[in-house]
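From the pipeline queue, job 12 of 40. The input is one protein chain; the requested action is below.

Action: predict structure.
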Amino acid sequence: MDSELIIRSGSFAAAFAITALWEMASPRRRLTQSKPGRWFNNLGIILMDTISVRVLMPAAAVNIAAAAEASGWGLLNQYYMHPALAVVTGILLMDCIIYLQHLMFHAVPILWRLHMVHHADLDIDCTTGLRFHPVEIIISAAIKMAAVAVIGPPVAGVIAFEIILNAAAIFNHGNINLPAGLDRILRLMIVTPDMHRVHHSVIIRETNSNFGFNFPWWDRLFGTYRSQPAAGHTVMTIGLSQFREPGKLTLLRILLLPLTGDPGAYSLNRIGADPKLAAEDRSGSRTFL
């Protein structure tokens, strides 16, 4: 599986470099924090995530797929299917499970505490897409391996899914400016930065929308799709309302957030309805509920 690791690492590096350069050339929003400080925190967490998975869960999803194929485990291994169709079907089923997993991390209190680490970023860029608490990453890896065992996708499908998932997470968190017309077309097929940025709004009704990472269809199908943020992309507030002080979001404090942080109003009961304008001050700043 060394070649698989090389392919995934190369794809990750390419996606990250392209998106990071794109952000510098054509940013969508002005950042509220200095990039070096945020990147130190985010890349530090990403490094811990990588080490945690490699040390604690060496049996990667691709190994589970190979074992399932050899032993006849999983739904797709019970019937003959053209290899290309099996790859596509496996990718779609795994993507749906990732969507449901994301929804679960917003709905279950203890999982939301872990997921707050991702949402507490005060800006959003290519590093935000990989900023997850190490415990969340381990839980996610376990869910992914269980899904592979149940679905039984081909090894090639799992490798393709991992590459797509990593690249999509980097791209759709990117602070990149896409023309509105192009965005409308692309979001019919993939999750675009403008579509996913709504999910990082400080307004809970917007946070509880647009859960998809790769494909946008699950949000539309399950009623969690929201087209645009109420305040607009350039002035919307990113993050969580209970974590607004950059000095309290150092690397160590971010890692301790699930234990020490206020979970806030995360409930999925606040879903579906449009945010309401609560107040507007003299400067023109708006507050939504």
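Job complete. DSSP finds twelve helices and two strands in the chain.
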